Every structure is written in structure tokens, then in C-alpha cells.
Amino acid sequence: MKRCIIIGGAPINNYDYINSQIQEEDFLIYCDSGLIHLNKIKHRPNLIVGDFDSHVNPNIDVETIILPTEKDDTDTVFGVKEGIKRGYEEFILVGVLGNRFDHSLGNLSILLLLDKEEKCGKIIDDYSVIEIVKNTPKYVENTFSYFSLLSVTPIIIGVTIENAKYGLNGAEITNYFPIGVSNEVLEGKCAKVTIEEGIALLIKVF
């Protein structure tokens, strides 16, 4: 699938890991303050978007969309919508979880937007990989130290977790009791997570 990398302005410490996840053929959109990472992410932008209230417009030879400061979409949401408009099917968001909890939570909701548009999406940072789980199985490799499954909808039904320290078989999890926090993959195994109804966040922690 054609991949679009969305780069926001939250802190990144492990640039080696982020760079390892980006492929040469990916389409990179830098969103306003995401430009602080321009010299450490080893891939030039294909598109820059933003109102430039938090970073100066670099005025480099790259397609740039200048947004108004007063708007409904954040710069990051606009960047994702622009990627969808251009036909990208898979999105990786980096630099979108940071000190501003409101922005972090808003950026998590972008995964729901992508799911609604039937696109694949995940967020990666220095500590974790986050993605949506619905009616397609997801897997957790034993390279991760922990993983958590949190209900987004009021309830997720038919939750099955295999090859993990805390297994489940057809269980129900609500969004007011985080029972799915800090599970572990069994040694030498790959955990499998499936749900029959509802939407959950799968957070895989290094």
C-alpha cells in the first residue's frame, strides 16, 4: 500500500528508530512545528502544511500549503486529510504524542478518523506503537515488553487474547475499567488479539 508519513512537533528522542520505520518511497508530510525534526529525520518532505504559528515557514523548494490560524482542523488533521485526498492507504504518525495532553488525545482520535475512512493507521513514538483493533486480528511480537488493549467504544465484545501472560477467550471489556493494561507476550511467542464487536486501541510498548 502507498504509505504517508505524518510528522508532528512533539518531542522525538530516538531518531534512529523513527528513521528505520520510514521507506524511501513513502510520502512525507511535515505539519507546522513538525519542521523541528527536519534535519534529524533523514527524509526530505514531500509536502509541508501549517499555519506557521509555532514554526517559521522554511520557504524551501517543497510544495507548501499555508493554512489560516483560525480553522476547524489542526495542522496534523489537515495533513492526514490531505494524504487521504491524494490516495494514500496507510498512514504512520510520528511526533504526535507529547506534553500537550489535549493535542495528544486529539491525535489519537486521528486513528479513528483513518479507520472511518477505511485506511490503515498507526502512531509510533519513542516508547510505543499504537493502532486500532476492530474485526481483524492484530499481532504483538515478543520484541515488545508490554501491550495494552483499551476499549474506545463503551464496550468491546468477544475479546480473545492468545499467547499472552493474561489470556482471554470471548471476553467483554468496557471503557470505564482498564483491565487490559500491561499484558505481556509469552516468551518465544507472538500474541494475537481479536475482537468481534466494538473498537479498541492496541498499545504495544517497547
Summarize the biggest pleated sheet.
9 strands, mixed
Q: Summarize the amount of helix as a percent range.
A: 10-25%
Round the mean pLDDT to the nearest integer and report it: 96
**Gap between N and C termini:** 26 Å
| Computed structural class | alpha/beta
Low-confidence stretches: none
Keywords:
206 residues, alpha/beta, 9-stranded mixed β-sheet, 4-stranded antiparallel β-sheet, 3 helices, elongated
Structural account:
With 206 residues, this protein is of the alpha/beta class. 16% of the residues lie in helices and 33% in strands. The protein contains three helices and 13 strands. It has helices at residues 15-20, 75-85, 101-116; strands at 3-7, 27-31, 47-50, 64-66, 90-94, 120-124, 128-133, 138-140, 146-151, 155-162, 168-174, 191-194, 200-205. The strands form two sheets. It has a nine-stranded mixed β-sheet with strand order 4-3-2-1-5-6-7-13-9, covered by helices on one side. A four-stranded antiparallel β-sheet has the order 8-12-10-11, with no helix packed on it. A hairpin with a 5-residue loop joins strand 10 and strand 11. The two termini are 26 Å apart. The model has no long low-confidence stretch (mean pLDDT 96).
